[in-house]
Design a protein that fits this description.
The protein has 352 residues and is an alpha/beta fold. It has helices spanning 39-47, 97-100, 143-147, 149-161, 177-189, 201-209, 223-230, 245-254, 276-282, 296-305, 323-332, and strands spanning 2-8, 11-16, 27-36, 49-50, 53-54, 65-72, 84-87, 90-91, 111-112, 126-130, 134-136, 169-173, 193-197, 214-216, 235-240, 255-263, 285-288, 314-319, 339-343. The protein folds into 2 domains: 2-148 and 310-343, Alpha-Beta Complex (Quinone Oxidoreductase, Chain A, domain 1); 152-288, NAD(P)-binding Rossmann-like Domain (Rossmann fold, 3-Layer(aba) Sandwich), CATH 3.40.50.
């Protein structure tokens, strides 16, 4: 089979790789149909690391696949060859204290596909995953839309973890794929006012299409002043989805006393800072978001029911042979990109 290997900083090659095989009773062999290019993939591509996770080249990344079942292990029930699935990339042990406490996403022995030193990723024609990580998707959901179920599950988990009440005032700082997935989840489940920001105007246009009540670009206006003018009492929840010091600072200024800062974005730096005076005087809550917990199936249900439409997020599609072009596009934020998807079964780049 073929796979896209990171071979150096901003270097990617499509090479032949060994075919994966079913070895365990709960294994499922998958033909990968589509894979989304995530911001964490881009971090590995442009810097070779995320925190302590350092790529040893060559390495296959990618953790947002949709796929078709080719073969199932002897113990697998509920899945059969030909079935289309979205894939949860985090493989939990289901036996440690975290898993038994209902926190498989913080499993002590978690193995994450595409994470250096754990398991190779999904930018390959075939992968093997445990059956419990494979979630059936309906026929009317495209392969590219199936790939977006992974980030949508994160957005849904963050929205639910924040416990946003009806009538709440909320900001999403960073309207990339994760921020937009938070927005879609909020719109599906909560009646609240949403302010969205981003430094790229095309992404703000998508945010408006997805239901944002107000959008602003911090490069062309003082978004904190504008939102404060509209909401003198300030905001209940801020979802920080950019992983930048500037947006973390903006979040603290925008929150009312007792408000919550949801930290979803992944910073490229090892340390960030907070204005302790603001945190203390306002008694603000800081909540990190570690991917998702038991939200893949609910995310698929929202998409299947029509309550959520992820198609506006899919702005670019590439064949596997052009995976490097997909990574360069996402890394450089060119051409209004929101979500670039590599579609394994295609031979030509196409518009959504």
């Amino acid at each position: 089979m073929r796979a896209a290997f990171l071979t150096g900083i901003r270097e990617l090659e499509v090479r032949e790789a060994p075919d994966p095989v079913v070895t365990e009773g709960d294994d499922v062999l998958l033909q990968v149909d589509a894979v989304g290019v995530c911001g964490s993939d881009v971090h590995y591509y442009t810097t070779g690391r995320i925190g302590c996770q350092v790529v040893q080249h060559p390495w296959v990344c990618g953790h947002e696949p949709s796929a078709t079942v080719l073969e199932v292990g002897a113990d697998v029930t509920g899945l059969a060859p030909g079935q289309r699935v979205a894939v949860e990339p985090a493989i939990s042990c289901m036996a440690c204290d975290q898993c038994l406490a209902g926190r498989p996403h913080t499993c002590r022995k978690l193995r994450f596909i595409s994470c250096p030193g754990e398991r190779p990723g999904a930018f390959s024609e075939r992968i093997v995953m445990p059956a419990r990580n494979c979630y059936p998707i309906p026929d009317d959901l495209s392969a590219a839309e199936g790939a977006v179920m992974e980030p949508l599950s994160i957005g849904l988990y963050a929205a639910r973890l924040a416990s946003v009440r009806p009538g709440a005032k909320v900001a999403i700082l960073g309207s990339g794929p994760i921020g937009l997935c938070v927005l879609l989840a909020l719109r599906a489940e909560t009646d609240c006012t949403v302010y969205a920001t981003d430094r790229l105007d095309p992404r703000l246009a998508v945010a408006r299409q997805c239901g944002a009540d107000w959008t602003g670009n911090p490069d062309s206006q003082d978004v904190v002043a504008a939102i404060t003018d509209a909401e003198p009492g300030l905001l209940d929840v801020v979802f920080e989805c950019a992983g930048e010091q500037d947006t973390l600072d903006q979040g603290l200024h925008l929150l009312k006393p007792g408000g919550t800062l949801m930290m979803i974005g992944i910073p490229e730096v090892d340390r960030v800072s907070f204005a302790i005076d603001l945190l203390r005087r306002k008694e603000l809550r800081l909540q990190n978001v570690r991917r998702q917990c038991e939200c893949v199936a609910p995310a698929i249900a929202l998409a299947a029911s029509g309550q959520v439409d992820v198609s506006p997020l899919i702005t670019h599609r590439f064949p596997l042979d052009d995976a490097k072009a997909a990574f360069d596009l996402a890394a450089d934020y060119r051409d209004g990109v929101v979500k670039a998807v590599v579609e394994m079964g295609t031979s030509e780049r196409s518009a959504p």
